[in-house]
Amino acid sequence: MEFKLRTHNCGELRESNIGEKVVLNGWTAVRRDLGGVIFIDLRDRFGITQVVFEHTFNADSHEQAKELRSEFVISIEGTVRKRPEGTENDALPTGKVDIMVDKLSILNRAKTPPFPIEDEIDVHEELRLKYRYLDLRRPSMQKNMLLRHRMYQVVRSFFDTNNFVEIETPILMKSTPEGARDFLVPSRMHKGKFYALPQSPQQYKQILMVAGYDRYFQIVKCFRDEDLRADRQLEFTQIDVEMSFINQDFVFSTFEKLMKVLYKEIWGKELETPIPRLTFEEAMTWYGSDKPDLRFDLKMSTLNGVFANTEFRVFKDTIETKGIITGLVAPGCGDYTRNQLDVLTDFIKKQGAGGLIWIRVKEDGLESPTMKFFTDEEKVAMVEELGAKPGDLILILSGKKYKTLGLMGNIRLEMSRRLNLVTEETEPKLLWVKDFPLFEWDEETNRYYAMHHPFTSPNMEDLALMDTNPAEVRAQAYDLVLNGNEIAGGSIRIHDS
Amino acid sequence: MFKTLGFTEEDAKEKFGFLMGAFQYGAPPHGGIAFGFDRLCMIFCGEKSIREVIAFPKTANAISLMDDNPSLVSDEQLKELHLRIR
């Protein structure tokens, strides 16, 4: 099919173009047939321009335009005109003008799409994925893809400016069964042998440091053959980085700079640096998570001190077994009904909590079935430690330290949802979490696992504990956390044997 | 380190031998980081799922619905690769 190359894209024309002869190519988005005149919204990835087929202006093309349906691919030639008074569309950058069509070429017809090509659609995701080419044609998806493209460019330019070298590492690599399950690729030429797809280019990037490249980065696909719970993909993209002759603080300041650029270029926001740095221990104790969402406060408090001499058996056992008693104040939730509290209790019991202690803070005291176990001093000390006020609800969990903190962290998130603490307008919150434990004890296999990977360096002041108390050894490992999501993780490596 | 992880020296050599070998030829102190780019894009786009910022994602069942992937392969392909499906 013959057609003319476009003179402009569909998002380009303005009042300054009025009177020009133009050629536009694109998809038929919306068609309105008013009898003597047919309006088409012509769409490409740059925008939408209204084109007009008027019987009195050009009878042939008007006749032809009657055939047009959703998603037909067309090419038009015509003249840009100022839209008649009162018909401008301020929602479109091109909304002050439209095009009077002289000539229409239908380049391709289209079947009726299974869902409309527009932003707000109410269809099952599976249908969108089956017709992904149509889904990706929707402006909102095009916006996402373009923003992702923008981010590649910002990231590459940042690394280039800062003396990093982009080096590709192999996709067919050696299987190293530490970590998640490898994707294996059978070798045709070496019977019985296999390549593996990288879970990360970890070893190659360390080799590149030995080779003297000093600063390496790569935007790279990685693969993990795991069950896809919690919004993961078998293949995913990593910005992979390794640097020589640096320390942890240098890593922090470097990537705060990268995030500053991304904030500015993508969001138009100013990121204040340095950003907060919490230790793993602080993050767990205060927020019950190693990737805390700091967009809202809801800080947890440890109550072991308050109940040091308690006669309440549950707390007494916890303290004796070196567990933790942790409390959280849900502000203004003191009017929660018994039913609401049961729902909350069920929510956390399903995740493995023994039970949830709740206390309504009233003007004239505390209201809870558990109150009979607490002394007056304990009540006063507890309220003070938690900073609870009348009208608030106190929630308490006790048990094994990290498990219990994690459970309270989940209650914290649940309460933030119930209290609607995060809205579209809430400012994003970025922080480092550092000093992770070097080892993680696995109850099932009765052995330690490297929490990051086996080349992570311990904190130098903890070296003496390596043989005596490995669980207490902290690593020079760190995560970057944005709005409660772990967006990056890394470590200083062991470089001597 | 490997001792605490319960690796024998042989284990460690088998898995990380080439890296440990390389380290004997002048390894500088180094460290690094890796960003989950999909999740980063998701947050910057204000989306709730990484599938919204990946052009051709797989479902939670690890299937690509558009091209019906994964798929069966021919017996010839399997034979060349010295594989038999049990």
Our count of helices of chain A gives 12
Helix content percent band of chain A? 25-40%
Any idea what the shape of chain A is? globular
Give the overall form of chain B. Answer: flat
Low-confidence stretches of chain A: none
The total strand number of chain B stands at 1
* Mean pLDDT over the full residue set of chain B: 88
What is the structural class of chain B? mainly alpha
Class from helix and strand fractions of chain A: alpha+beta
Task: State the separation between the terminal residues of chain B, measured CA to CA.
Answer: 40 Å
Distance between the termini of chain A: 68 Å
Strand and helix map with partners:
The complex is a heterodimer of chains A (497) and B (86).
Chain A: E1 21-33, E2 37-44, E3 47-54, H1 59-65, E4 73-82, E5 97-108, H2 125-130, H3 132-135, H4 139-161, E6 165-166, E7 184-186, E8 194-196, H5 202-210, E9 215-223, E10 235-244, H6 248-267, E11 277-279, H7 280-287, E12 301-302, H8 313-320, E13 324-330, H9 338-349, E14 357-362, E15 365-367, H10 376-386, E16 393-399, H11 401-418, E17 430-434, E18 439-442, E19 447-450, H12 465-468, E20 477-482, E21 485-492
Parallel strand pairs in A: 3-5, 6-9, 11-17
Antiparallel strand pairs in A: 1-2, 1-4, 2-3, 4-5, 7-8, 9-10, 12-13, 13-16, 14-15, 14-16, 17-20, 18-19, 20-21
Chain B: H1 9-23, E1 30-36, H2 37-45, H3 75-80
Short characterization:
The complex is a heterodimer of chains A (497) and B (86). Chain A has 497 residues and is α+β, with helices and mostly antiparallel strands.
Describe the structure.
The complex is a heterodimer of chains A (497) and B (86). By secondary structure, chain A is an alpha+beta fold. Chain A has helices at 59-65, 125-130, 132-135, 139-161, 202-210, 248-267, 280-287, 313-320, 338-349, 376-386, 401-418, 465-468; strands at residues 21-33, 37-44, 47-54, 73-82, 97-108, 165-166, 184-186, 194-196, 215-223, 235-244, 277-279, 301-302, 324-330, 357-362, 365-367, 393-399, 430-434, 439-442, 447-450, 477-482, 485-492. Chain A has a 5-stranded mixed beta barrel. In chain A, strand 20 (477-482) and strand 21 form a beta hairpin. The longest helix of chain A is centred in the N-terminal third of the chain and has 23 residues, at 139-161. The radius of gyration of chain A is 31 Å and the shape is globular. Helix content of chain B is 35%, strand content 8%. Strand 21 of chain A pairs antiparallel with strand 1 (30-36) of chain B.
